[in-house]
Amino acid sequence: MTGPDPAFWETAYQHKHTPWDLGGPTPVFVRLIAEQAVEPGRLLIPGAGRGYDAIAFAKAGFDVTTVDVSPSACAELREAAAAAGVSIRVLEADFFTFVPEAPFDAVLEYTFFCAITPTLRAAYRDRMAALIRPGGLLFGLFFPFNKEDEEGPPFRVKREEIEALFSDAFVLERSELPSDSIKPRAGNERLMLWRRR
């Protein structure tokens, strides 16, 4: 495992101590779906947790696969997907080691990059480059930018670090501070769409 021990995440979900959980789909992603900013296709969501965004994208016609190390989070997502009437591949696995059936058309990032230790960010980039087909997308919200300390998770991110990290394997097509971020994260997260070279 390349972030906090899987037991850390499982304990959090078992005890319902998940302050990062929005309780519903992320407004920025709901907007991207409405804008058709990302074409439906094979979509991977690492660290999906309870999977509100996974369900929203599945309802929009995406073929969604999620990866999470918490058995409880995976079980909750399976139940929620069934209740919503959508099919989602829910994998209880380590993002860095699971073996996909085929490359993905896109990967959705939100609160996963900031959950792994910063020393592993190059491995994250390499894994993304391996998982996404040429011409595919890595898109999502990178967070938190305004954190003062180095402790985590979540671990602080820097725009220039992200741009330098991904620029060899990806082309940045869109970068913005979204006006529809949830209030506690407004101005502290950046929407980025990266196209795989």
Describe the secondary structure blueprint for this structure.
Layout: H1 6-14, H2 27-35, E1 42-46, H3 52-59, E2 63-68, H4 71-84, E3 89-92, E4 104-110, H5 121-131, E5 132-142, H6 159-166, E6 170-176, E7 190-196
Parallel strand pairs: 1-2, 1-4, 2-3, 4-5
Antiparallel strand pairs: 5-7, 6-7
Give an overview of the whole structure:
The structure is a single chain. The radius of gyration is 15 Å and the shape is globular. The protein has a single domain (6-18, 39-196), classed as Rossmann fold (3-Layer(aba) Sandwich), CATH 3.40.50. It has six helices and seven strands, in the order ααβαβαββαβαββ. The chain is an alpha/beta fold and 197 residues long. Helices cover 30% and strands 24% of the residues. It has helices at residues 6-14, 27-35, 52-59, 71-84, 121-131, 159-166, and strands at 42-46, 63-68, 89-92, 104-110, 132-142, 170-176, 190-196.
Percentage beta strand: 15-25%
Q: What is the gyration radius calculated from CA atoms?
A: 15 Å
User: Which architecture per CATH?
Assistant: 3-Layer(aba) Sandwich
Q: How are the strands ordered across the major sheet?
A: 3-2-1-4-5-7-6
Please summarize what this structure is:
The protein has six helices and seven strands; from the N terminus they run ααβαβαββαβαββ. With 197 residues, the chain is of the alpha/beta class. The chain has one domain: Rossmann fold (3-Layer(aba) Sandwich).
Structure keywords:
197 residues; alpha/beta; seven-stranded mixed β-sheet; 7 strands; globular
